[in-house]
Prior knowledge:
The protein is an alpha+beta fold. It is built from 4 helices and 8 strands, in the order E-E-H-E-E-E-E-E-E-H-H-H.
Amino acid sequence: MRSARGTRRIPAGEFFVSAFMTALEPDELVTALHVPVWGPGSGFAVAELARRQGDFALAGAACGVQLRGGRVTRAAVGLFGMGAVPVRARAAEQALTGASVGGVDLDGLARDAVAPLRPASDAHGSGAYRRRAGAHMIARALGRALAEAQGTGEAGA
Length: 157
């Protein structure tokens, strides 16, 4: 972030404050985004459910995995549309890390990831609907990320 006062970095987990609100000060501008490189054996995918293309997502997931020797060595699972700000599914990340690729129960892991969340209900869907949709989006994105990391193409399309 940059302003007339200088430059500062804001970790991603602290950037989003609430719906449509960030940690930026009124005179600040985002000038760079620093994203770590994961390296070989990595795969990434995003899945979202929206009423129309380009609308805000009712529920969605962004997932990354890194594999070595048939096991998940690194995992990141982020959810959006499930609250006022994006949410990391840390329990899902921990459950994935160390798991054998063939032994991952995507649906079960996804259900567990959204179980503690209480997304708001609105005119577009109930909180329960968003939780079910969010679980499906996690399973879909993780399936694609795992397929990409294995070099087998897209899975769970």
